[in-house]
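Comment thread on ticket #2218

A.B. wrote:
> Attaching the input chain for the structure job we discussed in standup.
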Amino acid sequence: MQIALVLFDRFTALDAVGPYEILARVPGAETVFVAERPGPVRNDSGSLTLVADRSFADVTRPDVVVVPGGPGQTPQMTNEALLAWLRAVDATTTWTTSVCTGSLLLAAAGLLKGRRATSHWLALDAIKRFDVEPTGERVVFDGKYVTAAGVSSGIDMGLALAGKLAGDRAAQSIQLLTEYDPQPPYDAGAPHNAPADLVAEYRARSRHPQP
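C.D. wrote:
> Ran it. Output below, let me know if you need it in another format.
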């Protein structure tokens, strides 16, 4: 079983690394990082590099695709090399998935039309223009398409997917061994809980147009 995690310039690290840490532990899984061209790919702050060992041309029939988000997602919306690859591999994937604004890339490829999906809370309105029904849920399954909300939710998506791929006990084992037991010191992880002035500040600064 091959799990392909997509990289592009200025991706958000946890969007990719969170699901990777979970899915790489699924029994029998081969996880590969793939990009338009093999080689180092910088994250959104430029301070971390992951290496894509394979190009899109090298990975033609992955069982699972994971598309992260990040500031670099915006220019990728018109990158036909990426969008065409997503459409091509989606024809045979078991699961096509995304984290954060990676769902906008799936939508731009035409894969989420008429479906329910989630994204980072600042991007939920942006996904509507692709005939996608946005939802604020943390992880959304719609057929074989699985979308996760912002950044950290990719870990939840990875665990949910691990359960589908290997069964509940395997997923519980992964959760136990990674000691994924969130106990955040603040209750500000979603716009309905965070201070209203913070939410307004980040809406005003968002690269996604707000209504």
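A.B. wrote:
> Thanks. Noting for the ticket: The mean pLDDT is 97.
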